[in-house]
Fold this sequence. Notes:
By secondary structure, the protein is of the alpha+beta class. The protein is built from 6 helices and 4 strands, in the order βαβααααββα. It has helices at 10-18, 36-46, 56-59, 63-66, 70-76, 98-105; strands spanning 2-5, 25-28, 85-87, 92-94. It has a 4-stranded mixed beta sheet with strand order 2-1-3-4, sandwiched between helices. α2 (36-46) packs across α5.
Amino acid sequence: MILYGLPTCSDCKAALRALADQGVTFRDIRADPLTAAEWAPLIAEFGDMLIDRKSQIYRNLNAWLRASEAEAQLDAQPALMARPVITDGSRWTLGWDTKAQAVWLG
């Protein structure tokens, strides 16, 4: 199981604590950015929902980048990703709400 996120993200921290006994691996998307091939399944699964449009980083994007596709936005600013994204290879969740918790905690 992999959790994609940022070490400063409160939802990522909560998910990591809850999933600690399940052997979750944390991937810091800022320190270890994803390649285009690694972004592809996330974008296929979540589309534009993968972009955190409420973030300061998004508000600071120039108009051209704001109008660009999710792939270009995430390539330029990986921290734009809504967090956390959790996968076990076959299932994917975005965020750490009750629906995501039900998937991973039963």
